[in-house]
Amino acid sequence: MRRALAAGVAALGLDRPEDLIQGLVGYLGLLQRWNRVYNLTAVRDPGEMVALHILDSLSILPWVHGPRLADVGTGPGLPGIPLALARPDLRVALVDSNLKKTRFCTEAVRVLGLAGRVEVVRARVEAWHPPQPFDTVVSRAFARLADFVAASAHLLAPGGRLLAMKGRDPGPELAALGPDWTARVEPLTVPGLDARRHLVIIARSGDAAVPPSPS
Fold first, then answer.
1. What DSSP character marks residue 51?
2. Which domains does the chain have, with CATH numbers?
3. Are the beta carbons of 117 and 92 closer than 8 angstroms?
4. Could you read off the pLDDT of 81-98 as tens digits, one per residue?
5. Cα separations in angstroms, 158 against 76, 117, 139, 153, 182
């Protein structure tokens, strides 16, 4: 698992200090143990978790904007915890209404030494009003882009971005966002994963244009 993580992180072009790999291994080990009892994710095989959970989460890192990130519908901390491990400057809120999943996230934050910069919030995203808005709001959990925007827009700081992680190209959903929002779709390459993945980057129409793919 450690070798697969190191190879995948390198393939994504990320720095791979030992503490990052160690943190990711620790997170996966904890997720496996809890998953046996609490069924946090349908993915059981550790090798599949590397690509489907960790590398998939890290593949969006070039589009994470600013120092404050909210991961809404985080489940067992995906993508928020891998992103926090990869970006020590990030301040992350992990938001989910499910008790067992937020309990796991709280334990993961403690075990991985992320307390102080990663907050676990048990709430429905549409009912949560944090004291400060976020530069980036991300989710893998919403089926429809319009639902994601409607539930999460109040969390977004001026100039911020909503990032929606998708499987198939969600092009037909873009029209439902309306004129207040602008969006672009970026194909993602996830090491070890053959399935198609896409990232939808959404910004308010009055803000700066959504940037192109990082070089």
1. I
2. 2-204 (3.40.50.150)
3. yes
4. 999 999 999 999 999 999
5. 28, 22, 19, 11, 14
